[in-house]
Amino acid sequence: MGGHGVQSGEDMPSLRKGTALLGQRMAKGAKPPFDITARAFEFALMVVEFAGRLPTGMAERYLAHQLIKSGTAIGTNVEEGDVPSLLGIALTSSALRKEAREPKYWYQVIGETGTGDSDATAYLADKALQLVRILSKMIEGVKQAQ
Length: 146
Hints:
mainly alpha
């Protein structure tokens, strides 16, 4: 893969049965990966883990579906955004930034309704906001380089 390709080995987080990446990251205060691809992948894993812990009522299933859909879309779009031109990067990053805002919205809904763990909800909402900020900086950098 290109410069944004998924890394292999110990660099990439894992969500194997019995592990709780979200809990590990929250408890240790570990620094997230520097690479945007790895960071988006880790965010997707934590979103899936969080959504799997939501209650199973109809409303919660809908919220879980929206979280998984929007939270994993960031990573897939980062992967698809492996383009060589500065203009392509700027356009892709703009779309990514917009996409990254959606999980933050769903975490706000979950937080206000008290549906999920409040600490995990706040943590993941912050991680979504961090992704938006990173993507915004990428766009600014590309625009300045043009």
